[in-house]
Amino acid sequence: MSRYASQRKGWLSMTNSAVHAVHDDDLQAVLDKLGLATAFGKGELRCKFCGDVMTWDNLHSLFPDGGSIKLVCDKPECAKALLQYLNARREQPA
Amino acid sequence: MSEVVEKILLALGSIFGGGVLIAILIFLNPDKAEKWWALLVKGALNLHFGAKALHKHYVRHDFQGRVNEFVKKNCPALPGAAADRVRLEWVDGSVSKQAILDGDVVVVRVKRRDPEERSFVHAVCLFVSKSLLFKAKRYISSPQGEATDLLFSLRLLEREKPATVSYFVDDYLHPATDKKRHGPTAQIFDDLVTVDRGRLFYSVFLQELHFLGNKVFGHRKDGVIHGEVRQLIEFLKKLADRAVGDTGVDLDFFGAYCRFAVVIVGKSDKLLREDIKPYVGFITGKLIPASVETIYLLAPARNAQYVGQIAEQVGGTFDRYLEAKFTMPLKFKDGETRQSNTYLLILRKRGAQTYIQKAS
């Protein structure tokens, strides 16, 4: 990769960016707090994109959508669908 | 007695000096220090020392240290990254549903048992998706944005955590670039890999998209923008394949929204010392009338002073945007590729158009 000797701050519009994560140690507490634990435990929650039942093994992420919290499973196509969905949602109307 | 005191002072001096040295190193390179700290924590984890408490520390500092170091080192080479510092923020039992909804917070799950460090890949992909060219992605097509993200993520993982690349390829890259299912993304990704072989030209691509993202459109013409980005990639592919001295390849791109030129200041030191006027004349006589907004002045490192003089001569129209020294591969007509110490100065037109009217 190229190595640059100097750069100005003006190169980019730079901001801080946060990635949010939940650790396994806190997952139960987070699901409790979000009011999802009971349904999750009963196998009533499904992946937003493929409809598979969400479990401890396949939970990839969660995100807000339409006023509620949706879950995403760890299938490659669903992880990809999540990124596409977030990008599409970011687009402004023409 | 004095010998003992001397030894104590020497020891204290060494310890203090070492501490100061470490503090200076951390100050000068916090990202590398964070990576080292993560490695220390990982060592402790492998020894089953404080495993429960330390795993979150390890994941956080490992992610932040590696991503921040990559962005810091490569932002000039990979512009368009919207963040110069990434933070991994843990969501725990103190979170409220309303905070998630209001903040539009996407939460990635980090598994405790994660030998392939898949969580790292998920977090990187999410970071790149939300941070890279986040304004330009409003305008470019989904496959164009997706392919750009994939190449950026791939380069980040290759450099910072090579062991995770195979997982990334299987779970992110291959599903997106399977030509049967995702033709456009696959094609664009292939093209960007070609552009990236010229190193600088992938940077130019990201930089131009970054400028595009800063424009505001009164009436957006997505089709025109998508077409222009396609043309931009084709243009840069040719530049990346260009051999030194080849005059048959265009060095300027006059699109509706992206208008830039690469000016190579490659003449010998002797000729430049006598005269830089041809370069200044080209900029004032051709590029300024053509409403070029960005000029990439590219030269062998030895010619940096002359590039500076050229920039001064056109300083009434263009501001210095960035200067950098780096190595890049140059193709020669004999088929050989050699690394060259290169100097780059980017000039940006003062008052470059930011609002595109409906009628434009």
SSE topology:
The complex is a heterodimer of chains A (94) and B (360).
Chain A (H helix, E strand, L loop, with lengths): L14 E9 H10 L3 H5 L17 E7 L2 E6 L2 H15 L4
Antiparallel strand pairs in A: 2-3
Chain B lengths: L1 H27 L1 H17 L4 H24 L8 E8 L6 H7 L3 E4 L7 H14 L10 H19 L4 H13 L5 H15 L2 H14 L2 E2 L4 H20 L10 E3 L4 E6 L4 H6 L2 H11 L6 E7 L3 H10 L4 E14 L5 E13 L5 E2 L4
Parallel strand pairs in B: 3-9, 5-6
Antiparallel strand pairs in B: 4-5, 6-8, 7-8
Helix pairs in contact in B: 1-2, 2-3, 5-6, 6-7, 6-8, 8-9, 8-10, 9-10
Please, could you describe this protein's structure?
Helix content of chain A is 32%, strand content 23%. Chain A is built from 3 helices and 3 strands. Chain A has a two-stranded antiparallel ribbon with strand order 2-3. In chain A, strand 2 and strand 3 (68-73) form a beta hairpin. The N and C termini of chain A lie far apart (37 Å). The model of chain A is unreliable at 1-15 (pLDDT under 50). In chain B, 55% of the residues lie in helices and 16% in strands. Chain B is built from 13 helices and 9 strands. In chain B, helix 5 (118-131) crosses helix 6 (142-160). The interface between A and B is large, with 55 and 83 residues.
How many helices of chain B in DSSP terms? 13
**CA gyration radius of chain A, whole angstroms:** 18 Å
Arithmetic mean pLDDT of chain A: 82
Strand count, sense and barrel status of the largest sheet of chain B are:
5 strands, mixed
User: So what's the overall shape of chain A?
Assistant: globular
Number of domains of chain B: 2
Helix content of chain B: 40-55%
Low-confidence stretches of chain B: none
Average pLDDT of chain B works out at 83
- What is the domain tally of chain A? 1
Q: What's the number of extended β-strand segments of chain B?
A: 9
> What portion of residues of chain B belong to β-strands?
15-25%
Distance between the termini of chain B: 87 Å
Structure class of chain B: alpha/beta
- The outline of chain B comes out as globular
Topology pattern of chain B, helix = H, strand = E: HHHEHEHHHHHEHEEHHEHEEE
Query: In percent, how helical is the residue content of chain A?
Result: 25-40%
Q: pLDDT below 50 for ≥5 consecutive residues: which ranges of chain A?
A: 1-15
